[in-house]
Amino acid sequence: MLFVQWNLRGLFSKLHWLQLPPFSTATVLVLQETFLKNSSFVSLRNKKIFRVERSGSPGGGLVTAVSTDLPAQLVSFSLPSSEVEILGVKLWIGSISNSPVTVVNVYSPRGIFSDSWLDSLFSQLSPPFLILGDFNIHHPALGSLFTSADADMLLNWISINNMGLLNMNKFTRFQGGQNPALLDLSICSADLFSHCQLEVSLDQFDSDHCPIFVSFSGFGDRTVKVRSYINWRQFSNKINDCLDNSLETQSIEALTLIFHSCSDSSCHRFSSTSRQHSPWWDAHCNYLKALKRRLLRRAKTYPDPSNWSAYKKMAARLRKYIKTRKRKFWERTCEETARSHNAF
């Protein structure tokens, strides 16, 4: 699955490029500075369009174009007042349809952000998610020679909330007379980081920004884990039998073969598939579940009333937290559905 992120600086002037590969074959196009007006009509072959226009002044505008065969829903955010333009779309992708991926399209004209705006955005996102856009910030960590006003704030926000920045060493904007810059950032939730690969195009396609190709694969697939367990008593007995039955002094190579043979015959292998959790399940659920298992093992090993009491309290705590997570997830889903007029 291919996502294309691009500040194209005028959609109509680049429409001929969008009808050709790799744009026409991409699953999702995440476009900034479309320069569209409310009265502008635009369509792309085999794509459904989600768009936001800038009101009150020319320029700006966002478009997220999704393949028609991919279920998608507009996501509404309730954020503090800001000049940052934002467009959210939720995608149901193949085997992870029970946990949709939220794609957030962002354009900041001057790279100005606030803590309240960033924190509010993150609080309304549930993993997995991608945040793609033109943030217009400069920082030495991104290859710039200076630091813009809110660059430290934005990078700290990414780090503190355990998000991944896919590109930190490839410039994306080239304009005559100015140093190249990395203004277009690709951010993802931690669970997507190992499943995303990023490539910056060498062609600007008549813009001053290079398109960014984000390949997305493997997330949500059930992996088969094979675990080996050895029966040490059986292994020891087999080693002793082999050594007792050998009449001659064994060489190191022969002893090594005996050990390997006894190890393989005493080893038992089990395969299991990783479990798919519900979309409301989070890291704290895993933490409480692990504590519950630990207390259960302790209670079974040392069947003291205090140990059983601690286990029951942890089980009740986990049930209460799961109930809260389910209720909040359902309330947020209902709010998003009520706000959206472009569902599927």
Automatic annotation (TrEMBL):
Pfam families assigned to the protein according to its UniProt record, in alphabetical order: Exo_endo_phos_2 (PF14529)
An example molecular function term from Gene Ontology annotations: catalytic activity
InterPro entries membership: Endo/exonu/phosph_ase_sf, Endo/exonuclease/phosphatase
Domain Endonuclease/exonuclease/phosphatase: 102-213
UniProt-recorded name of the protein: Endonuclease/exonuclease/phosphatase domain-containing protein
Source organism of this protein record: Araneus ventricosus (Orbweaver spider)
